[in-house]
Amino acid sequence: QMRPVEFGGDSVESGGSLKLSCSVFGTNYYCRGWFRQAPGKGREAVAVVDTHGAAKYADSVKGRFTISQDTDKNRMYLEMNSLKPEDTAMYYCAAGSKEYYSDDSGIYYCVANPSDFSSWGQGTQVTVSS
User: Fold this and answer.
1) What's the CA gap between 14 and 103, in Å, rounded?
2) Which of 36, 29, 3 is nearest to 99 (CA)?
3) How many Cβ atoms from other residues are within 10 Å of residue 20's Cβ?
4) Phi/psi at 124 (nearest 5 deg)?
5) DSSP state of 41
6) What is the 8-class DSSP label of residue 1?
């Protein structure tokens, strides 16, 4: 099965915006997500979304980043606004199938754990200068 492919990484100044795109192939994955890894740090979830559009965000990006998808085109996006130097990282697109049920909201969300995503892209670099 083909791996996801990311596009759109670039170097921007603090406060700027970028939009990342990802081609996610195959229809066997309920969950798609954006992850990032900064030098010397572990890989962390940025935002995940299931095929019904239920999304979860890392606290550090809430209100600044938006995940979206076009399931007909097998495309996923990450719109990033108000970028900060601490957003600098390699950004990865990934697909997986593990969900959990939220008693609070009564719907299923994707588990935002890198180990629960089995199909990964090569990554695209985002650099934010101060």
Assistant:
1) 38
2) 29
3) 23
4) -140, 135
5) S
6) -
d(CA 78, CA 8): 10
- In this structure, what token pair is assigned to residue 100? 């959990």
Q: What is the DSSP letter of 34?
A: E
Return the pLDDT at 124.
Answer: 97
pLDDT score of 26 = 64
Share of the chain above pLDDT 70, in %: 98
How many alpha carbons lie under 13 Å from residue 55 in its C-beta half-sphere? 19
Q: How large is the C-alpha radius of gyration of the chain?
A: 14
Instruction: Count other C-beta atoms under 10 Å from residue 81's C-beta.
Output: 14
**For 23-74, how does the pLDDT look when each residue is reduced to its tens digit (9 = 90+)?**
987 667 889 999 999 999 999 999 999 988 999 999 999 999 999 998 777 8
